[in-house]
Amino acid sequence: MKKDDPLSKSNQERSSLEYDTQMISRVISVIIPCHNEEKNIIKSLHALNNILDNIPHITWKVLLIDDGSSDKTVEIATSLQEQDNRLKIIEFSRNFGKEAAMTAGLDEATGDAAIIIDADLQDDPSLIPQMVKKWEEGTEVVLAKRSDRTTDHVLKRFTASLFYRTHNALSPLKIPENVGDFRLIDRCVIDALKLLPERQRFMKGLFAYVGFKTETLTYKRQARETGESKFTPLSLWNLALEGFTSFSTIPLRIWTYLGTIGAILSIIYGFFVVFHKLLYGNGTQGYTSIFFAILFFGSIQMITVGILGEYIGRIYMETKQRPVYIIRKRH
Ligand code: UDP
Ligand code: MG
């Protein structure tokens, strides 16, 4: 076919048009969980707008999940929505936690991919173009790993690192260290996550569980723009427990082995005591060792009952089949 053949030309035009419409039709839903972020929301949405508008071939929507804010987050968001209808707001009836907010975001996301990003500008939005590029090249999960955690308190860094190490030692499922919830996931990953029926959603674990073709980008995590972290040491501890119990039964099984070792040692000691009595008669010694043994094994039993309780409590909550979140209003 000649170069200036009209048919060839129209074919060329058509194919480039098809290419364009195919690219333009790709929609990204940006999910922002928000709990009392009135001071950050304008700046954060503004930064996102600037970046997303400059990425070619994509259209985008923002899903702001208001997780029971008691400040003006919803009012500010709805006023921003009047200027830009690409913003959708889901208002929870109360605070259900970030894991629930992310779950709602993924349930409501309609795009070909979703990006989960915090409202406080700690997750650097300028990483998004690179994430999208990786996604367009065929990666299904693009993770954002913190190159360093210097903006975190030394105690938070230490406990976070301890959590990742303990979790990955206990569980067959490995969670990548220093990777938060900031990530891009393809539609197929969203659909896979929606298949997981559990109510207690430890999202970092669920993300790792579904798998898919993953690549990691690194970024420097900034300090929080304004306001304070919503995660107290106690809530982080609870999240860590959720992580351990969601993906590992080793905390339950370990006692079987420790108990077996204890029983073997007790039998050996029992023989020793009997022979001692036969050879030397019955002295009145032994008070200290008996006292120690009662306290030690009593404590071990309390710990095992506690660990059983952690799992049984979760089974109990799971059987109630309560919803993960309740929506007051969709704006
Ligand atoms: N967040 C939420 N619900 C909560 C706690 C936090 O939606 O109960 C949101 C919060 O508004 C922010 C993101 O989750 O957009 C991360 O929270 P934060 O910055 O407090 O956590 P950190 O960065 O300290 O881990
Ligand atoms: Mg933060």
Automatic annotation (TrEMBL):
Keyword match Metal-binding: no
Keywords: Glycosyltransferase, Membrane, Transferase, Transmembrane, Transmembrane helix
Domain annotation Glycosyltransferase 2-like: ranges: 29-190
Residues annotated as transmembrane: 254-275, 287-312
Superkingdom of origin: Bacteria
Primary location recorded for the protein, binned into one broad class: membrane
Signal peptide: none
Membrane topology: Multi-pass membrane protein
Subcellular location: Membrane
Cross-referenced PANTHER family: PROPHAGE BACTOPRENOL GLUCOSYL TRANSFERASE HOMOLOG, UNDECAPRENYL-PHOSPHATE 4-DEOXY-4-FORMAMIDO-L-ARABINOSE TRANSFERASE-RELATED
Annotated protein name in UniProt: Glycosyltransferase family 2 protein
Species of origin: Bombella pollinis
